[in-house]
From TrEMBL:
Protein name as catalogued: BTAD domain-containing putative transcriptional regulator
Occurrences of domain OmpR/PhoB-type (ranges): 1-90
Membrane-crossing residue ranges in chain numbering: none
Pfam families according to UniProt: AAA_22 (PF13401), BTAD (PF03704), HTH_77 (PF25872)
Upper lineage: Bacteria, Bacillati, Actinomycetota, Actinomycetes, Streptosporangiales
Classification via CDD domains: BTAD
Keyword vocabulary terms for this entry: DNA-binding
Organism: Nonomuraea longicatena
Claim: Zinc-finger is one of the keywords in the record: no
Database matches in PANTHER family: HTH-TYPE TRANSCRIPTIONAL REGULATOR RV0890C-RELATED (PTHR47691:SF3), REGULATOR-RELATED (PTHR47691)
Length: 981
């Protein structure tokens, strides 16, 4: 994200679109954090900024609420709590004020046109008065004043820099309005006086001095400073030192720019900086990434720094033996037929020249030899080369030109499409999709923009699967290799040897890159590493951390066609499937112990390759990945691939069992019947069976779930499998808790936790904390419950177990509710609900929603509570989840009672009673009895109500879990009503 304070407060997302930050105090919080980017802002300072003079009852809690609201906009990791306050965790360079100051610093170290351009770039960041909406707020005044002073100083420096390069004629008029707004700034006035004088307007310059003198006298009782007074005297005597500097005629053959270079300002500055330090800079990158455009713009910016010329040499169609001749022709050096390299050296010796060697890849060796010779002979020579591969000589500084980031790619495409098809609507979502599919390659984006007039952006986006036909023509004035997308890649392909072409086309079977081991397994051959290195050097393969090797999407599409032409498609896809099946099966047992974190990260990197390998409905691969999907919370994805395997003829009991369990967890199935046979000695099926028992908790017939768990346990015990035994014990803990056997629940949970800790399985420790924390909550020990849930939340976040994170947020929300922190409770439940929905974890989404409903009802928001409850009641009925149905009916009954509807309340609680009895949980029955007592008390049946309350209390005592004080609200209310009767 990018942040703006140089104007109204603004936030832009990765796609370049502005992100709305709602609510005034949340915007003020963001402004307070942005004023000190990269530093912790004390909480008390933020509180003063938001509520100066009118503090809320709980300032720290109110601030935390605003922080939570801001995290929902920026992302949960964007704002972090750090003593003594909060830190906005974004790179400072993403804040426009920081970028502004960085450009000013670089401008201070530059001269000539480069300085002017850097100051212009800095001032272009301003969108209006800094933080204008907070101009009257005390917390922002000092920063606003500082930034506005910097802006004025930059304007003064820009005026002086433009005077130095002879732009006085334009400045003489442009500075008028600025001086009128700031009549007492002597430095600004001095620049205006010089510009007027040099433009031949001496009288206006003298009038300007007089106006300044009058303003200073009237307002401050002062005279102009000595420097300005001296300038006035020099103008009066027409001092020759005031004459405009002579503008040198540039010696260059650089073409004039026809369009703006979008998204490369920082790159131009960085490359220019490299040329200060290195005498040879080579811009590398794939075809179409914009190497030539970047080189030309950099050369234009630096033209004033090379008094002896800036020369472009185009080498795209040059034979190796003719490189020196082409360079000589560009420099107008006579070709006398022999020792031409020496003649070039003699011509350049003693001169300060920048040579731009463009498109060197097909003659890289010859260019390298000539460049080395010239650099040794001519100390004042600098060379800026563009090539898909390095020149490979000493002193070469490589700079890889990256594709455009998404926001800049969108800007480029939008600008070119608007020029090509004015008036055509540009749907932002379709534009973003086009830019992503084309990898941010400027040439591809330019070609695509020419198609907008005929297709529109939505149709263009839809047709990019056939990109080579869609982007089959472009600008007629472009080189032939740049007129179509296919021609661009053909140019690179034809420079490769046969072995390089083989590896490149086979790499295309991978999705989102691959490791070296995968490349060697799939591509085959004796020297895959060496060939990969050559392809990386030629900018056809992108290498990332790991290392991982990746093709840009357009290159991959081209190579897939070549793979088809070679008749290798099926063979290479089979190799790909075999490699990733072996990887998944090797990883599966490692996900059940201390190395699960490392292996989940490894599998994360291969997600796209697994999806590609699963495309044929591979049943073994789906089963091997099932536990990984559980750990990562990708339940919807797992359900889809398992279902696909079954639909394509998968007959394994393991596959069906996993599918049944995933469908339960995503809320897309009723309680499942237990498998007809136990897993026997099949540990893969035993794990699937155990997870099915886990998914059946609270759903369907409790006895069926316990039978499934027992079958899994039998298999694990027979095989001596400690992980499986620990897992089933955790399942039994939950089953016991549902039926109200709290002692058994605690025993099973503690046994499971000890075993998982010994095994080093952190997932197991996280999920078994659920019954342990709930047991503490039932006991009324909220401090211990919160401690258990917070610790498991931390572990779940570290492991990126997002479904477990959602449940922990809900559990912490429940504790906050019980300890009277309603605002925090609602925030935690909403975060849990959003996270569960994001991962297709419908059970967790409902768990969070019911927490919100309980909070709304207890805070008197009856309509909101009822809406949430009824939304999930039908879903739970379809799922056959009696514990959830009993709770919802009890809550709906209390809502009816609080509205004064005794008859409706009683009917709901009686229905809830029938459901509660089916669960076998005495506490659920007690809750229904308490609800019925409330309805009867409202209807005037006091004696019967008292009997029911006594019966409920006895039931709770029998479980060893009487109602703790924080949960006695309904019972106390009913007893108070009975006392009044």
């Amino acid at each position: 994200m990018r942040f703006g304070v140089l104007g109204p407060l603004a936030v832009w997302g990765p796609d370049g679109r502005q992100v709305r930050v709602p609510e005034v105090k949340v915007r003020a919080l963001l402004a307070g954090l942005l004023i000190e980017p990269g530093r912790v802002v004390p909480a008390d300072r933020l509180i003063d900024a938001l509520w100066l003079g009118s503090l809320p009852a709980n300032p720290a809690g109110a601030l935390q609420t605003r922080v939570s609201q801001l995290r929902r906009v920026l992302g949960k990791d964007a704002v972090v709590a750090r003593p003594p306050g909060y830190l906005l965790q974004v790179p400072p360079s993403e804040v426009d004020a920081v970028r502004f100051q960085e450009l000013l610093t670089r401008a201070g170290a530059s001269t000539g046109r480069a300085r002017v351009d850097l100051l212009a770039d800095a001032l272009a960041l301003w969108r209006g008065p800094a933080l204008i909406e907070f101009a009257d707020d005390e917390f922002a005044r000092a920063e606003i004043a500082r930034l506005e002073e910097l802006r004025l100083t930059a304007l003064e420096e820009q005026a002086e820099a433009r005077l130095e390069i002879g732009e006085h004629a334009m400045l003489a008029d442009e500075l008028g309005d600025l001086v009128a707004r700031h009549p007492l700034r002597e430095r600004l006035r001095a620049a205006q006086l010089k510009a007027l004088y040099r433009a031949g307007r001496q009288g206006e310059a003298l009038d300007g001095y007089r106006l300044l003198r009058e303003h200073l006298d009237d307002e401050l009782g002062l005279e102009p400073g000595p420097e300005l007074a001296a300038l006035h005297q020099a103008i009066l005597r027409q001092d020759p030192s005031l004459a405009a500097p002579r503008r040198q005629t540039r010696r260059t053959n650089l073409p004039a720019a026809l369009t703006d270079l979008i998204g490369r300002d920082a790159a131009v500055s960085e490359v220019a900086g490299l040329l200060d330090a290195a005498r040879l800079v080579t811009l590398t990158g794939p075809g179409g990434v914009g190497k030539t455009s970047l080189a030309l713009e950099t050369a234009r910016r630096l033209a004033d720094s090379y008094p002896d010329g800036v020369w472009l040499v185009e080498l795209a169609s040059t034979p190796a033996e003719s490189v020196a001749e082409v360079v000589a022709a560009a420099l107008d050096v006579r070709d006398e037929g022999s020792a031409l390299a020496d003649h070039l050296s003699d011509a350049l010796r003693g001169q300060r020249v920048l040579l731009v060697l463009d498109n060197c890849e097909q003659v890289a060796g010859a260019v390298g030899r000539l460049t080395a010779h010239l650099l040794r002979a001519a100390p004042g020579l600098r060379v800026l080369a563009t090539s898909q591969e390095p020149l490979g000589i000493g002193g070469e500084q490589l700079w890889n030109v990256p594709p455009l980031p998404s926001a800049d790619a969108v800007r480029l495409f939008t600008a070119r499409a608007a020029a090509s098809a004015p008036g055509v609507a540009l749907d932002p979502e379709a534009v973003s999709a086009i830019c992503a599919r084309l990898d941010g390659l400027p040439l591809a984006l330019e070609l695509a923009a020419t198609r907008v007039r005929a297709l529109g952006v939505r149709e263009l986006a839809a047709r990019l699967d056939d990109r080579f036909r869609v982007l089959g023509s472009g600008r007629s004035d472009a080189p032939a290799r740049q007129r179509t997308l296919r021609a661009m890649i053909d140019w690179s392909w034809e420079l490769l040897g046969p072995e390089e072409q083989t590896v490149l086309r086979r790499l295309a079977v991978h999705a989102d890159g691959c490791t070296l081991a995968a490349a060697e397994a799939v591509c085959g051959g004796d020297d895959v590493l060496g060939l990969l290195a050559r392809l990386v050097d030629r900018s056809l393969v992108v290498v990332g951390e790991g290392p991982r090797y990746r093709l840009l999407e357009s290159v991959a599409a081209y190579c897939q066609e070549r793979l088809e032409e070679a008749g290798e498609r099926e063979e290479i896809r089979d190799r790909h499937r075999a490699y990733y099946l072996a990887l998944a099966e090797r990883a599966a047992p490692q996900l059940l112990g201390p190395e699960q974190r490392q292996w989940t990260v490894l599998l994360d990197a291969e997600s796209a390759n697994f999806r590609a390998a699963l495309d044929g409905g591979d049943e073994r691969l789906a089963n091997a990945l099932a536990w990984y999907w559980v750990l990562r919370g990708r339940l919807g994805e797992g359900r889809r691939w398992l279902a696909s395997a079954v639909e394509r003829g998968g007959t394994s009991a393991t596959t069906q069992t996993w599918l049944d369990a995933f469908m339960l967890r995503t809320g897309e199935a009723h309680g499942c019947p237990p498998p007809e046979d136990g897993p026997g000695d099949d540990m893969e099926l035993a794990r699937a069976t155990a997870f099915l028992a886990f998914a059946m908790v609270g759903i369907g017939d409790p006895a069926a779930g316990e039978e499934v768990a027992e079958r899994a346990l039998t298999a694990f015990r027979r095989a001596g499998e400690p992980w499986g035994i620990a897992f089933v014990r955790s399942v039994r803990a939950r089953q016991a808790q549902v039926r109200g056997d709290l002692d058994a629940a605690r025993t099973y949970a503690e046994q499971s936790r000890s075993a998982f800790a010994e095994l080093g399985d952190r997932w197991g420790q996280v999920q078994v904390s659920f019954p342990l924390g709930q047991h503490a909550e039932i006991d009324g020990d909220y401090e211990r419950a919160a401690r258990i849930h917070r610790e498991s939340l931390r572990m779940a976040e570290e492991l990126e177990l997002w479904t477990e994170v959602a449940d922990r947020l809900s559990l912490l929300g429940r504790i906050a509710q019980l300890t009277g922190q309603q605002e925090q409770a609602d925030d935690l439940h909403r975060r849990a609900m959003a996270l569960a929905a994001e991962h297709g974890y419908t059970v967790g989404e409902e768990f969070a929603a019911l927490g919100l409903a309980l909070g709304a009802r207890r805070q008197g928001r009856l309509e909101e509570a009822e809406e949430l409850l009824r939304t999930w009641l039908a879903w739970d009925r379809a799922l056959d989840s009696d514990p959830a149905i009993a709770l919802i009916l009890a809550e709906l009954g209390f809502v009816a009672e609080l509205r004064g509807d005794a008859e409706g309340a009683l009917a709901l609680h009686e229905e809830g009673m029938a459901t509660a009895r089916r669960t076998g949980d005495p506490r659920a029955v007690a809750l229904a009895l308490e609800g019925m007592a409330g309805a009867l008390a409202l209807g005037g049946e006091a004696e019967r109500a008292r009997e029911l309350l006594a019966e409920a209390e006895a039931l709770r005592e029998s479980t060893g879990a009487p109602l703790p004080p924080a949960e006695r609200g309904d019972v106390d209310r009913i007893r108070a009503a009975l006392a009044r009767q």
